[in-house]
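Hi C.,

You asked whether I'd gotten around to modeling the 97-residue construct. I have! Everything is below, sequence then structure, no commentary in between.
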Amino acid sequence: MKRKTLDDWKQLIEEQQKSGLSIVAFCRENKLPTSNFYKYRGQLQAQDRVPVFVKATPPVRNSANCTITLLYGPVQLKLSTSCEPAWIADVVKALQS
């Protein structure tokens, strides 16, 4: 018996859909293993699927407009996000003393 190609299975699956028969009845009538029918139907459906994952890139931010605002009592400092964290820590320590 000749092995069926994916195109052969595609045609059989289309025939089953048009026949109005259940998969089990169609396979019984055509002497096909139902496990193979489901296997190849799944492979054909997987070919048609759009990939679930898409590459995403973070938005580009203009760092000149990004600021950190420190509030300490009545004092308000606006700092650029490009400031070194160690420098910001020194400012906070100086405010606390």
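If it helps when you're writing up: The mean pLDDT is 83.

Thanks,
B.
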